[in-house]
Design goal:
Blueprint: H1 7-19, H2 23-35, H3 40-45, E1 50-59, E2 62-71, E3 86-92, H4 98-111, H5 117-130, E4 139-145, E5 149-154, E6 157-162, H6 165-176, H7 183-189
Antiparallel strand pairs: 1-2, 2-3, 3-4, 4-5, 5-6
Helix pairs in contact: 1-2, 4-5, 4-6
Length: 198
């Protein structure tokens, strides 16, 4: 049985440890509380959201972004169009054009063999329309809408939807498919993605 301690309780314990002069333990608990705080836009989309895992994506040693996977009670169910919502949150470590993010996404879908050339062209155009340019600290969040498509947020503010279920499966497969090119990141994201049982 896995027990979840509310972030508010962790903060109270951290404050008590700080007063007792136990700074390292207080700092550790404060970091845990911060990690367990569900962003408001994710909480509004994913019922009973919890952090399944997080990791860093690097390209030739350069840090590109930090990623988090937020799941509901049922966890992450791969290849299940009837599964529940989940959220993938990316915090960028450098400036990138939205068009480049869209292009890179299309290239990863191609590597995975997902969609037809016509679909990928259409999907890239939709992403280019939707994705903003990002800079260090910008957060881009994708919400998986089972059987419907994907919804996107930037820094917690709604960007819009791409209403295409096949697009959504292909997009999130970039990080979560068994054949992704980012295997270490996938393992980190899915570390705690199994359903929780009391």
């Amino acid at each position: 049985m896995k027990m979840t301690v509310p972030a508010s309780s962790l903060r109270r314990i951290a404050s008590a440890l700080l007063l007792a002069g136990m700074l390292p333990f207080a700092a550790l608990l404060s970091n845990i509380a911060l990690a367990n705080t569900v962003p408001a836009h994710i909480r509004s989309e994913v019922q009973h959201a919890r952090l399944a895992g997080e990791g860093t994506f690097r390209w030739f040693g350069l840090k590109i972004y930090e990623a988090q996977l937020w799941v509901g009670e049922k966890g992450y169910i791969s290849d299940s169009p009837s599964g529940e919502k989940f959220a993938l949150n990316l915090r960028y470590a450098r400036s990138l054009y939205g068009a480049k993010i869209a292009e890179a996404s299309r290239e990863e879908m191609l590597k995975l063999g997902l969609g037809t050339e016509q679909q990928r062209t259409r999907w890239q155009a939709s992403m280019e329309t939707l994705f903003p340019d990002v800079e260090e600290g910008t957060q881009l969040t994708g919400i998986y809408l089972p059987g419907e498509g994907a919804r996107f947020y930037v820094d917690g503010k709604a960007l819009g939807d791409i209403r295409d279920a096949e697009f959504a499966r292909a997009f999130f497969a970039i990080w979560l498919d068994a054949n992704t090119t980012a295997q270490k990141l996938r393992a980190a994201l899915l570390a705690g993605a199994a359903p929780q049982h009391d």
